[in-house]
Amino acid sequence: MSTGEPSATSTRRTIVAVFLAGVSVFLVLYETQGLLPAIRGAYGIDAPTASLTVSATNVAMAVFLIPFSMLAPRIGHARQIACGVVLAALLALILPFMPSPELLIAVRFLQGVAIASVPATAMAYLSLRLPAKALPGAIGVYIAGNTIGGLASRLLTGLAAEGLGWHGGLAFTAAVSLIFGLIVVWLLRHDLFTTSRVIAARESSATEQESATDTRSSATADTAQPPRRAIIPLGSGLWRIYLTGFLCMIVFGGSFTMLGTRLQHDPWRLSEGAVALFFLIYLVGTVVTTYYGRLATRLSRTSLTLIGMVTALVGAGLTLVDHLPVIVIGMSLLTGGFFLGHTGASASASASRPGVDSTRSAAIYLTVYYLGTSLGAWLSAVLFTDFAWPGVVVMCMTSLFAVLILTLTGASIGFKKRS
Fold first, then answer.
1. DSSP code, position 30
2. Mind giving me the DSSP string for 224-235?
3. Helix, strand, or coil here: 93?
4. DSSP of 136-185, one letter per residue?
5. Can you tell me the distance from the alpha carbon of 38 to that of 165, in angstroms, rounded to the nearest whole number?
6. Quick one: DSSP state of residue 418?
7. Rounded distance between C-alpha atoms, residue 18 and residue 123, angstroms
8. Which of 152, 201, 248, 313 is deepest in the core (most CB within 10 A)?
9. Radius of gyration of the chain (CA)
């Protein structure tokens, strides 16, 4: 518990709960991304409208991340996580039965609201419940849960839709998400029914204990100074980092949103299940993020970002070739390049520096990150409708060149070579 050294069982239970919470909500975050052609046909809508089933969820996440991060201490972190995972799954269950595209998009927006409660809360909950030595590994496990859930969201839905239709694919993913969500509720049961006052007292006690183990100067700063407001000096360069994440996500979200639509057109006409397998390319990102720390000890973040953008540009160009193996190679290079840029920008936004609230800075980065996903999904659909896949590639290359310019012209915050 937070008021003392937690037992090994309690630590494991907390880590597993937050891991499964990440899997559960990210399972339903992108569930419509690989089914856009089927949704278009079912409702008789155009590609930009269908893409709103992806954009609406990400917009809601972006809007509610910061409010939920402020709400969690009042209602309890465990309660917010539990409510979020269950509500997101329940909304996913009713999603296939929406009679109109407007209602479908509205439910997807509500899902985004529910999903936002988990990433806005999870890391803070881990920091309150776990000893400091267990925290870095626990956060890594939580992020892995997000990645697994995001990949499975596209993969499971597409493969299930192969035999059950797009309604069945969505329902299957929702059922899996709900099962994980209920397990999360059970694992968090010890915190769920504690009153808000007791939760607040416990968290306050944990803060006091952590402060007592700090150096005298740190303890004085924590207890004597009022809570520092978020001061984000955008003029110092942080805006470049936020914009880097925004532009990178336009590329990544847009390209993968319309990839399935492209592959279900001539000359391939692949099924939903076959298209879903292309999302295994996401595993390239897992490899890149795993080794990014080692790369950052040898190269500056500026260099890594430049390498990433050039790699992504080459990949985007290769996807213009109408040959499936070349498309796979191209999307793999684009994915690897994206994660080089995103990982560096995310770390820079979260890094502690004078005059900046790093927690709030990270939250702002996530907000613009998901806004980039939303814009990329919608804009790629518009461009695909008018210009087919070359229009999507032009969008990607334009954004990638913009990141190159941002980096070369002075994105200094967080892009210094490590000593």
1. S
2. HSPPPP----GG
3. helix
4. HHHHHHHHHHHHHHHHHHHHHHHHHHHHHHHHHHHHHHHHHHHHHHHHHH
5. 9
6. P
7. 9
8. 248
9. 22
Q: What is the pLDDT of residues 295-342, one digit of tens each?
A: 878 888 888 889 999 999 999 999 999 999 999 999 999 999 998 888
DSSP per-residue letters across 204-263: HHHHHHHHHTS-HHHHHHHHHSPPPP----GGGTHHHHHHHHHHHHHHHHHHHHHHHHHH
Tokens 């390498």 label which residue? 307
- 375: region left, alpha or beta (phi > 0 left; psi from -120 to 50 alpha): alpha
Angle separating helix axes 122-129 and 47-75, nearest 10 degrees: 30
Reference 71, options 85, 58, 84; nearest CA is 84
CB neighbours of 339 closer than 8 A, spacing ≥ 6?
284, 285, 288, 289, 292, 308
Residues 6+ apart with CB under 8 A from 75: 196
Residue 227 has pLDDT above 80, yes or no: no
pLDDT tens track for 253-294: 999 999 989 998 888 999 888 988 998 998 888 788 778 878
Q: Which residue did the predictor score with more confidence, 226 or 12?
A: 12
Tokens of 79: 């309660």
pTM above 0.70, yes or no: yes
Task: Give 100-138 as a DSSP string.
Answer: SHHHHHHHHHHHHHHHHTTTTTHHHHHHHHS-GGGHHHH
What's the pLDDT tens digit per position in 2-13? 445 567 778 888
**Cβ partners under 8 Å of residue 215, min gap 6:** none
Burial class (CB in 10 A: 0-12, 13-18, 19+), 194: middle
% of the chain at pLDDT higher than 70: 82
Q: Which two tokens stand for residue 132?
A: 């400091």
Closest to 71 (Cα-Cα) out of 144, 120, 115, 137 = 120
Higher pLDDT, 51 or 299: 51
Give me 211's structure tokens: 């402060």
Q: Which of 116, 115, 99, 98 is nearest to 107 (CA)?
A: 98
